[in-house]
Amino acid sequence: MTDIRITGIPKEAGFGDYVALLKPRVMSLVVFTALVGLLVAPVTVHPMIALTGILFIALGAGASGALNMWWDEDIDRVMKRTRNRPVPSGTVAPGEALGIGLALSGIAVVMLGLATNLFAAGLLAFTIFFYAVVYSMWLKRTTPQNIVIGGAAGAFPPMIGWAVATGGVSVESLFMFALIFMWTPPHFWSLALFMKSDYSDAGVPMLTVTHGRPVTRTHVLAYSLLLAPLAVAGAFTGIGGPLYLATTLALNGWLLVGAVRIWRRDEAEAEADRYRVEKGFFRFSLYYLFLHFGAILAEAALKPYGLGGW
Amino acid sequence: MTIRAEHEIHRRRLGRNLGVGLTLAAFILVVFGLTVAKVSQLGERGAFAHAPPGAMGQ
């Protein structure tokens, strides 16, 4: 009997591939920072409204991730770090990613507006626009300052969380924005230092590609020097306190030590130990942000017991 | 090669359909919960504040 061999069946996406389209790891950071912004605001929100708010902020972030994946398909296909994503791997068609991104953006913004307030919804819409259009379509391929300005997109979630509760902006929510905004460059540039040829292969004008690694090392140090005093100053806003101050002093001391070590190294040294310091700094930067927001949350949680805040 | 009725693609489709179904069910629950929360807040704020005095008692 002759075997029948069916070939050319297109790859068919499972549900998990659509979830991956929404960049769940980025979403988890968005959920955490937005939740902190919402919980530390001086206005109590009904738990169901808070849950809905966070859910749709996360969905909006996921939608912008899908739009980014649609637009960056050509770049993602080249880079090792991203070539297994659903669109470049061919599991999800680019048009489908665009459709999902646009539909989910609309749902997230409208639902956030209905559940909470128009200001929060407007801020979410602006964040999606900023990430998908300003960062992905414009800055990413044109300037080595792409992640500096584009970092604003990742910095908005705690502001949206705060806006869900209060309906506005304050020094505290601006501080949380500034913290993530200033944290983004050293975080990404330390990653770029050990990603080797990924960005140059893809033609993305990352600082390592356009200005070289020594300049990037100097930039990591410079932005860390700017970030540290800002993070410490947050201790003296309405959401800071002694616990936050102790946490931020320790973390920023560590940050500066790491940044100086990166700055003092050259490529031969980094190659010799396979970018151990750079990788360590990158990992630490994730804890850095998580612990800062954790300390802000702890200050708010301790307030009812007379312990949090000044 | 035998032709099997069940192919890996069918499993993926089932998983995808279940995922979409559950997501829609969760969305309905969220909207329902949100409605309950909003209506209960209206009650707290005095939803009938616009009614003329005594209207609620009739």
UniProtKB/TrEMBL annotation, chain A:
Parts of the chain that traverse the membrane: 26-43, 49-71, 92-112, 118-135, 147-168, 174-194, 215-237, 243-263, 284-302
EC annotation from Swiss-Prot or TrEMBL: 2.5.1.141
Broad class of the protein's primary localization: membrane
Subcellular location field: Cell membrane
Pathway listed: Porphyrin-containing compound metabolism; heme O biosynthesis; heme O from protoheme: step 1/1
Reactions catalysed, as given in the entry: heme b + (2E,6E)-farnesyl diphosphate + H2O = Fe(II)-heme o + diphosphate
Keywords per UniProt: Cell membrane, Heme biosynthesis, Membrane, Transferase, Transmembrane, Transmembrane helix
Gene3D superfamilies per the UniProt record, alphabetical: UbiA prenyltransferase
Membrane topology: Multi-pass membrane protein
Pfam family, one: UbiA
Domain of life of the native organism: Bacteria
Function comment: Converts heme B (protoheme IX) to heme O by substitution of the vinyl group on carbon 2 of heme B porphyrin ring with a hydroxyethyl farnesyl side group.
PANTHER family, A to Z: 4-HYDROXYBENZOATE SOLANESYLTRANSFERASE, PROTOHEME IX FARNESYLTRANSFERASE, MITOCHONDRIAL
Miscellaneous: Carbon 2 of the heme B porphyrin ring is defined according to the Fischer nomenclature.
Record-stated family: Belongs to the UbiA prenyltransferase family. Protoheme IX farnesyltransferase subfamily.
Quaternary structure annotation from Swiss-Prot or TrEMBL: Interacts with CtaA.
Protein name (Swiss-Prot/TrEMBL): Protoheme IX farnesyltransferase
Species for this entry: Cereibacter johrii
Taxon lineage: Bacteria, Pseudomonadati, Pseudomonadota, Alphaproteobacteria, Rhodobacterales
From TrEMBL, chain B:
The entry's keywords: Membrane, Transmembrane, Transmembrane helix
Name of the protein described by the UniProt record: Cytochrome C oxidase assembly protein
Membrane spanning residue stretches: 20-37
Keyword check for Transmembrane: yes
Record carries keyword Transmembrane: yes
